[in-house]
Every structure is written in C-alpha cells, then in structure tokens.
Amino acid sequence: MRRITIAAMGAVVALGLAACSGSGAGSTDDSSGAAADPGDLTVGVAMPTQTSERWIADGDAVEKGLKEAGYQVDLQFAGDDIPTQQQQIDQMITKGADLLIIASIDGTALATQLQAAADANIPVIAYDRLIRDSENVDFYVTFDNYKVGVQQATSLLVGLGVLKADGSKGDAAGPFNIELFAGSLDDNNAHFFYQGAMDTLQEHIDAGTLVVKSGQTDIEQVATLRWLQETAQKRMEDLLTSTYSDGSKVQGVLSPYDGLSRGIITALQNAGYGPTIAQGLPIVTGQDAEIASVKLINDDVQFSTIFKDTRKLAEQAVVSAESFLAGEEPEANDTETYENGVKVVPSFLLESDIVYKDNIQSLLIDSGYWTEDQVASGQA
C-alpha cells in the first residue's frame, strides 16, 4: 500500500490508496519483492489537442505501445484548454496512475499537478514539449528541437536558391524579402525552433541577402498563440496590407508548423500570389509532415516540412516508461540542454529530416508513414 499526502480544508491528511492508487515507480506487488505485473499498472497519457492530426497520431501510438507492453492506459486529449488538461491530470492521479506521460499545452501551467504526482511517487515524462518551472519532471522525450529550427531555416534558404540541398552555396544572391513566424510562446519548443532558425538565417540577414521587410524579428512579435492556423493567416494578411502595399513582393516565409503554413499560404493565394511556387507563390516552410501539407509539397504549393517520425517518439516514450515502472532510470542521450527553469531534465533526443518534393517517396512513403494514395488525396 502506498500512502500519499493531500491537502483538504487546510489540514494535511494521510490517506491509504491501495484500491484506487498506483503503486509508484519500481513498486512491488507483494512482500516477496517481485515486480508488479504490467497489467496491474496504469499509465496516464495527457495530450494537448485533437485539432492536429499529429497529436491524434501521437496519442494513439503511445497508447498502442503501452498496451502492447501490457499496461493499462488512460489517454486524454485536452482540446487546447489549459484548465481541462489540469483537471485531466488531477483525475489521473486521483484514479491511481502509476506514471504520467504529458504533452503540455502550456509548459508553465502544471506545477500543482506535478507536485501532486511527486507526492504520490508518480514519475512524470514530458512528451515532446518540455514542462517548465518544476523540479518534478523526471524525464523528457523529444526531437532535437534546435536542429529542427536549423532545418526549417535551411529549407527556406534552399527554396530561395541561397543554398543547395546538400548545404553548399547556391547561385542566388538576393536580396529576398522574407517574413518570420514562430509558434506559441507558452510552448518551450517554439523558442528552440526559432533560435535554431535565426542562428541559421542571421548571417544572411546581416549580409543583406535576406530582408525582413516588416522589421518583425523578435519572437514576441512573430509568435502564434496556440499554434492556430487562423491566427497565422490573419497575421500574414496584415503583413501583406501593412508592408507590401507598395507593390513589393514577399518571396519567402519561415513557418514552424504545417498548420500555420497552410494559413499563410491561404493568405498569400488570396492576395494574388501563386497558386504554385512555379507561378509566383513564395517559399513556405513547415513542420510535422501533416498529410495535407505533404500533398501541398507534392503539388508545388508548400516548399518543405520537417519530418519528425512520431512513431519513434512514441516508442521511446514507452521504453522510458517501462524503465521507470521497473524501478530503473531511463537511458538519456542529453543531460545538458533542457533546463526548465529549475533543473536540467535528462532527455532522449531523436533526429528529424527535411522533406522536399523529391524525397517524399523515400522518407514518407517507403517508411510506411503515409501511402501514395494519402499523399495524392491529402487525407489520412
């Protein structure tokens, strides 16, 4: 029996939760010291939203992997609503989760929930988005998010002809008008993406090859709250009206996510650009290899995306969870980078790839991530 402490009516009461609580990481199921059977353990999986096909796929993949390993799973999607996610995690703890895997909406909004998890001896794995300002984050599984930003900027430079696809110097000299977009400021990843991108683009901005005509280069100016497509579309429309009404043209847009990319492209097409890159649509980057955007890349509308194979991310989350639940420490390949404001969180980083039209087949179809029919239709 595990005992946890909760606050109620200003008093601290110790409650035995054998019937409704998990047994904690590395617990045993009897006095002999034998490890608990996976079927007796529950993993709570908190995902941010179902409005993105990416997060649906992540949730399903993590749930499938955990169930195949024999665990019970409580999978919840929060609809991009912070109080809903807080409530869902509270309920997972109350119902006896033995471990939590959390992809947060706001990485600073879960301190209370994480403290409750720590008090109940429940390990917490941050999934893809680092949870900040809490010592009660035990592990982090993600991609190399700084490198993702580098890849996004690199693909923009390739699309403009400043670089060749192999990274060597291209023939184009510019100057090229570009505009910059970032993700949601409450998502720690957005800062890594943008830093990686700007570290890559800055030398070309300094040289005058790239010109941010709006002058908006600070992440606070270019951020997109909650990564919403309609917000990105509106900002692109505003930029075209305020900055390009003199007849000049925008030639490239750094976009950190496919949903934003589609909103940006819609604004550009509505303003008379395109409809394809060959017909004057600017180079627009992306991330997540969402099928709607993969079709746009195949159709010469969006230029690139970043493929983060979330099957591998889900697999790593399951592997890390199994280690915790066996009373062991998960393998980390980075113990320096991800400082969350309180501690450096041990992490396992995965690699990502740039997707262009000419490698959709090798990266996405041959790997089984999408089929030829899905790429042709733009539907999963």
How would you describe this protein?
The chain has 380 residues and is of the alpha/beta class. The chain folds into 2 domains: 3-137 and 310-350, Response regulator (Rossmann fold, 3-Layer(aba) Sandwich); 145-308 and 354-377, Rossmann fold, CATH 3.40.50.2300. 37% of the residues lie in helices and 16% in strands. The strands form 4 sheets. Strands 4-3-5-6-7-13 form a 6-stranded parallel sheet, sandwiched between helices. A 4-stranded parallel sheet has the order 9-8-10-11, sandwiched between helices. Helix 4 (145-160) runs parallel beside helix 5. The longest helix has 19 residues, at 188-206. The chain is elongated. Pfam families: Peripla_BP_4. Keywords: Signal.
- CATH topology-level fold name of the largest domain: Rossmann fold
Biggest sheet layout = 6 strands, parallel
The first-level CATH class name of the largest domain? Alpha Beta
User: What is the H level of CATH, i.e. the homologous superfamily of the largest domain?
Assistant: Response regulator
| Computed Rg | 23 Å
Average pLDDT: 91
Helix-strand blueprint:
Blueprint: E1 3-8, E2 11-16, E3 42-47, H1 53-68, E4 72-77, H2 82-94, E5 99-102, H3 111-119, E6 124-127, E7 139-143, H4 145-160, E8 176-180, H5 188-206, E9 210-212, H6 219-222, H7 229-243, E10 252-254, H8 258-270, E11 283-284, H9 291-298, E12 305-307, H10 310-325, E13 347-350, E14 353-355, H11 360-365, H12 372-377
Parallel strand pairs: 3-4, 3-5, 5-6, 6-7, 7-13, 8-9, 8-10, 10-11
Antiparallel strand pairs: 1-2, 12-14
Protein name: Sugar ABC transporter substrate-binding protein
Domain Periplasmic binding protein: 43-329
Keywords: Signal
